[in-house]
Design a protein that fits this description.
heterodimer; A: about 500 residues; mainly alpha; 2 domains; globular; B: about 500 residues; two-stranded parallel ribbon; 20 helices; 2 strands; about 75% helix; about 0% strand
Chain lengths: ~500, ~500
């Protein structure tokens, strides 16, 4: 029963609840949204226990949708997507709670947040490329509104930039999906968008495969974002309201790396493992790690600093994916989760202090550890986890990536390691300027410390930071078979 | 049901929808001769017209459902599913236009019920165009439609803009008709027939096409390109669309364009199938129309002009379907395009005021807060025009892309998606204005009224866009059967089978 309906319920419930929340009166909307997102989390939670690590694709549901084109509603999760789904349902109640006092049109905001959940989960569980594409695009609209209506001063520019960048990449992917579908149909006589069907037709590189890989690459690279395609990210992250930034960083960016793992690599192994492509992508990841870190260092705006740190962290993920060893892929998956938790927490913290002081500038603060000790303590812990201090989640993920990547790319790994040092530099320096240093501005003396509601948002995140940092085995155990299967699929040589 | 066009009874059945509509037009005309004074008369005429369209659609449905087909090949009138499908689209567009017109005509003080009679005659012309299996019949239909629409474009005779639109449309349209007629004459000279099927048979036997035939084909294409407003023959469209009364603009952008495309499809696919030249020409036309229409639309501030250029861009997408010979894709896109374009114009008509001062995109600021349902309908139409998933526009675009990739036109497909991204640059600002910008004053949108009938129409169109976006199966079945019925003579075979409405 649960096996068959869990994923469908996860997709339908937030959509229905979201539409319902939209028509509720303002004071009740947020409470209803919180309940709805908690229900969503409750539906998803048993996935964690009932998931069988060696079971391949699970919780499958498969129904005909548009038979004329061989389009089906097929959903399922494996060790890669399981964590993305859980991360989504975990972050949603926190996002609702974190934007409890969002100004203006609360019902619409919380409704869109819930509808967004449907889109995000849909991206992670779709096993039909048409369904995947629909979800991939549908999720754009709520995010576009969340940035454009509730964002900062420059929100219109940020919203349209976010929309057009993403749409450009995804429409080219659409053509690639269609070309893939036509080619597989010609070869086998079966026209179907099913993932397994297209996967069985994955071919060695010919000129077409290069073009198709290019289209998929562009769509996912913009979303990740990989170095030269990242310019939408600082705008969108900074202008979005707190919950928007948390979801953008926590989940939307992971769709890009998830797309590489699920589609770009297995569908075009020949192109993806071609020396030039490998070199180019590893090089771009390194540029992202170093460049993102260096640019973060000079940001006067704390939110922008975190936004650029995302570019750096996602560089590690890309490096881990392309190194394609068991450790590095597991590490990449773990970095994806960790980044969602740590960066999400950082965005929450910035949002909380912004609500009090209405400034995101680092030099507006200083010495506030004495005024708001709780805030300062949590910010410190979260920053350390983002840097990757041993004992926190950040360390485990990045260490595994570096360990796994070292076998294939020793030089690149050495360069990437400096990224960790740069991360320490920009975050610790910012930390020093915000919560330490002398307390100069009298306005900061009147800051109030975290409220119980805000603590409720942060404590689950802190718990995860410690849990993954100390005992990551439950995570690694669940993702290992899927990671191994992916590597075998892409690189047919035996694993050491 | 096999119908023999040489027997009068069967011929009457073949022409049943046209006959019903003609009869109805005469009745309405008679009614109008007595009652043309008050707003009430206007309303009654409107409902009468609406009933006429419904009755005609019923006649079409009956023939479709009974699998009507002609005995023999070379009739003047085609009896196939393609014709019925196109008729439904025209009648749907016309009926929705009637619903949009009620309040608009009263607001603008256009109390002349002849408006509805002209609408009927224009629709009749479209149906004849889609049914014509002979170039002369197509030309007759085209003229009937065009003359009615010339008058409709200038219907608001107190406004200079409307008069300008009418005269511009008339002059350029007359030129286009001339080109078309000359093209028909040259094709006749080269092949000795104006029957489309026979032209196809002739060309199948002939070797290299002669200069006269090529010139004829070129002139035919020019004539049609004018009517569908393809770049570089689009220059009239923005001015005419802008000046005409908004419901008429909606009707022109959907019905007139659809009819010209339907005729073009039949002429090229049935008549000129053995010739390869037109494929190259249409390929280039599609490319420049997509690029030109989208780029020109980017700079527009007036919503109406923006929609006019957007309809040029959509003509480009439809031309991709022509180039890929995807008849079913064409029909699906046409249905979607009709819904979303009519919906957008309907909202625009509600926003306009008496005397129709220009509505700019900024004038829509804050609509989302004050009139949430209206803004929602507009947003759905914009997203559908943009080709966003879960809307009918996406399904249509996807189908055209599929047809293009299967025909090996990957470059055209890529051009389609890239220009679609460009189109986000002018559809999104409308949504942005409605939801993300504050209204200019508290009273900015108090006088926005759709009227009851138009509200029903807009609700129907919005629901249609969303439902077709998620569950297009039925539409596909119909479109595929209808699409298969248009093919070159040498591949014609036994009576058609497949999906029809009602089974």
């Amino acid at each position: 029963m649960y096996e068959r309906w869990a994923l469908t319920a996860l997709l339908v419930w937030p959509l229905v609840a979201g539409l319902g929340v939209m028509v509720l009166p303002a004071p009740r909307a947020r409470a209803a949204a919180l309940v709805a997102s908690l229900v969503e989390f409750a539906i998803s939670a048993p996935l964690w226990w009932t998931f069988v690590p060696d079971g391949g694709m699970q919780f499958l549901a498969d129904y005909a949708w548009i038979p004329a084109w061989g389009i089906r509603y097929t959903v399922g999760v494996d060790g890669i997507s399981l964590f993305m789904v859980l991360l989504t349902t975990f972050l949603m109640p926190l996002s609702v709670l974190g934007s409890w006092n969002i100004p203006r049109r609360q019902p619409a905001f919380f409704g869109l947040l819930l509808i967004l959940t449907t889109g995000m989960i849909g991206v992670f569980v779709s096993l039909d490329l048409f369904l995947f594409y629909v979800m991939w695009e549908v999720m754009l609209i709520p995010m576009y509104f969340i940035i454009g209506v509730w964002g900062g001063d420059n929100r219109l520019y940020a919203a349209i930039k976010f929309f057009i960048y993403t749409m450009f990449g995804s429409l080219l992917m659409l053509v690639a999906i269609l070309a893939l579908y036509t080619a597989a149909g010609r070869a086998t006589g079966t026209y179907s968008f099913a993932y397994t069907h297209l996967l069985s037709q994955a071919t060695q590189p010919g000129p077409t495969a290069w073009w198709l890989f290019g289209a998929f690459f562009l769509a996912f690279a913009i979303k990740v974002p990989l170095f030269p395609f990242h310019t939408w990210l600082p705008d969108a992250h900074v202008e979005a309201p707190t919950a928007g930034s948390v979801i953008l960083a926590g989940i939307l960016l992971k769709m890009g790396t998830y797309g590489f793992l699920r589609f770009a690599l297995p569908l075009f192994p020949g192109v993806a493992l071609h020396e030039t492509v490998q070199f180019a992508i590893v090089a771009l990841s390194l540029v992202g790690i170093i460049y993102g870190g260096l640019v973060a260092m000079v940001q006067p705006d704390f939110k922008k600093l975190i936004a650029y740190s995302s570019v750096s962290h996602l560089g590690f993920v890309m490096l881990g994916i392309w190194a394609l060893t068991l450790q590095s892929v597991q590490g990449a998956l773990l970095v994806m989760i960790n980044h969602g938790i740590s960066t999400g927490a950082l965005f929450f913290l910035v949002g909380m202090i912004y609500e009090r002081r209405h400034s995101r500038m680092i030099d507006a603060y200083g010495g506030i550890a004495r005024v708001v000790p709780l805030f300062a303590a949590i910010l410190t812990v979260v920053s350390l986890s983002s840097i990757g201090l041993p004992g926190t989640n950040g360390f485990v993920g990045e260490f595994l990536v570096l360990l796994g990547a070292f076998r294939h790319y020793p030089v690149a790994t050495a360069i990437a390691t400096t990224g960790v040092i740069i991360a320490a530099a920009y975050l610790l320096w910012a930390l020093q300027r915000i919560i330490f240093n002398p307390l100069t501005d009298p306005e900061n003396e009147r800051l109030t410390d975290l409220t119980p509601r805000e603590l409720l948002v942060l404590v689950p995140l802190l718990a995860c930071i410690v849990w993954i940092g100390v005992y990551p085995k439950p995570f690694l155990r669940r993702m290992e078979p899927a990671a191994r299967a992916l590597i075998e699929q892409v690189r047919p040589a035996p694993l050491p | 049901m096999s119908l023999d066009p040489t027997r009068y009874g069967d011929l009457a059945l073949i022409l049943l929808p046209e006959l019903v509509l003609t009869g109805w037009a005469l009745i309405v005309l008679l009614f109008v001769a007595w009652r043309h004074e008050t707003a009430r008369d206007l309303r009654i005429t409107g409902w009468l017209t609406f009933a006429g369209f419904v009755a005609t659609a019923g006649a079409v449905w009956w023939l479709w459902w009974r699998v009507a087909h002609a005995a023999g090949l070379a009739g003047m009138i085609a009896v196939d599913d393609f014709r019925w499908a196109c008729d439904w689209i025209f009648l749907g567009a016309a009926a929705l236009t009637v619903l949009l017109s009620f309040r608009y005509l009263e607001r603008e003080q256009l109390l002349a019920p002849e408006y509805y009679v002209l609408l009927i005659f224009a629709t009749l012309g479209m149906m004849i165009m889609a049914g014509g299996a002979d170039l002369m019949v197509i030309f007759l239909g085209l003229e009937l439609m065009s003359i009615a629409v010339y008058v409709l474009a200038g219907f608001d005779r107190r406004r200079a803009r409307s008069a300008e639109a009418a005269i511009k449309y008339f002059l350029l349209g007359a030129f286009a008709s001339g080109f078309l007629l000359y093209g028909i004459a040259l094709v006749y000279g080269a092949t000795g027939t104006t029957n489309i099927v026979l032209i196809g048979v002739q060309l199948g036997f002939a070797g290299r096409p002669g200069v006269m035939l090529l010139a004829g084909l070129a002139l035919l294409l020019v004539g049609f390109a004018f009517k569908v407003a393809a770049v570089p023959f689009h220059a009239w469209a923005p001015d005419v669309y802008d000046g005409a009364p908004t419901p008429v603009t909606a009707f022109m952008a959907t019905g007139v364009k659809a009819a010209a495309f339907a005729a073009l499809f039949r002429v090229l696919l049935e008549g000129f199938a053995p010739l390869d030249v037109w494929r190259h020409i249409v390929w280039w036309l599609a490319l420049v129309t997509m690029i030109g229409g989208n780029l020109l639309a980017l700079g527009q501030r007036s919503v109406k002009r923006m929609l006019a250029y957007s309809s040029v861009a959509h003509a480009g997408y439809l031309l991709v379907a022509v180039a890929a010979e995807g008849t079913a894709a064409f029909l699906v896109y046409l249905a979607a395009y009709t819904l979303m374009t009519l919906g957008a114009f309907a909202v625009l008509a509600a926003k306009g005021r008496e005397g129709e001062s220009e509505v700019t995109i900024d004038d829509l600021s804050g609509l989302g807060g004050q009139r949430p349902w209206l803004a929602f309908a507009m947003a759905v139409c914009m997203l559908s025009l943009l080709g966003f998933p879960a809307t009918a526009g996406f399904i249509g675009k996807w189908y055209i892309l599929l047809a293009a990739t299967q025909a090996g036109e990957n470059l055209l497909a890529a051009a389609l998606v890239v220009t679609s991204v460009v189109s986000a640059g002018y559809y999104l600002p409308v949504i942005m204005a409605m939801y993300m910008k504050p209204e200019s004053s508290e009273a900015a949108h108090v006088d926005v009224r759709l009227g009851r009938t138009a509200a029903v129409a807009v609700a129907l169109m919005t629901a249609g866009i969303l439902i077709l976006g998620v569950w297009p199966n039925r539409l596909f079945d119909l479109a595929r059967t209808a699409g298969d019925s248009v093919r070159p003579a040498n591949t014609l075979s036994a009576p058609p089978s497949g999906a029809r409405p009602g089974n």
